[in-house]
Structure formats: C-alpha cells, structure tokens
Design a protein that fits this description.
The protein is 46% helix and 17% strand. By secondary structure, it is of the alpha/beta class.
C-alpha cells in the first residue's frame, strides 16, 4: 500500500480537531503517517452519502486503484444532498440544517422553503432514507 485516501464527512475529516486544516490529523491521516505512506482526504464536513459517493467516483475516475486503501465513513441516512441548478452548487439538507447554511446560494425565502420541504417530506421516512443510503453504498461497492 502506497497511499490512504479517506472519504466521508466531518468525522473522517476531523473537523473537531484543533489546527487540522487539511484533515491529516484525523485517524486515517495518523495511520498513514505511522505506516509511512501518502495520505489524502476527500472528506467534506456536513455532507450526505450522495456527496460521499461522488467523492469516491470523482477520485477513482482519474486516479489508480492499485496500492490505495480507501477509508470510507458513511454518514447518517437523514442527510440529503441537493444540486441547485440556478446557484450551480450542492447543498446538504438534514436535521441540523438552518437557513443560514444555504441562504447564500438561494436567498432567505428559498432556503426556508427548502428546509420546510425537507422537514415535511424527506425527514419523515426513515425507511426511505435507509433504503436510499443502502442503494448508494451498494453502487459504490460495485
């Protein structure tokens, strides 16, 4: 193994760790250092499983898979990633989302509307959220 690459959310990035701007102080980075191999993280704090899948697809579409250990930390199924075409941006909606997290992309009224949609429809179906996440994980594994 020549390299460890991590994918996931804040847990795998180590957002809660002091002075960890590049994610190298999180546990996968520490293991890479201990083993003397290269390390890279593609983790994005606050993202959902769709974004994590995109991290993996994007990385391995242009990088070799040999001699690479992929460390993947899937997040909770209640997080949903949405693409906003008018803003050309991805946003995450989940139980902790508030308008200030996304209103710079769509404005206050639209942010409130998106969060209401999430709370009224998406967050209410644990069965669907679990099913959707398992589909994403299965697709990545294949």
């Amino acid at each position: 193994m020549k390299k460890i690459v991590s994918f996931g959310d804040s847990f795998i990035f180590g957002s809660e760790l002091a002075d960890n701007r590049d994610g190298s102080k999180a546990w996968p980075g520490l293991i890479a250092k201990e083993l003397g191999c290269a390390y890279e993280t593609r983790a994005i704090p606050g993202c959902g499983n769709d974004n994590i899948a995109q991290q993996i697809y994007s990385y391995f579409s242009s990088n070799p898979t040999t001699d690479v250990l992929a460390v993947i930390n899937w997040t909770w199924s209640m997080r949903w990633d949405f693409y906003l075409p008018n803003a050309d941006a991805w946003v995450n909606l989940g139980p902790t989302c508030v308008p200030s997290k996304i209103n710079h992309h769509v404005g206050q009224n639209e942010a409130e509307r998106l969060i209401k949609f999430y709370k009224d429809y998406v967050s209410e179906s644990m069965l669907w959220n679990t099913y959707r996440s398992l589909q994403t994980i299965y697709a990545v594994q294949n």
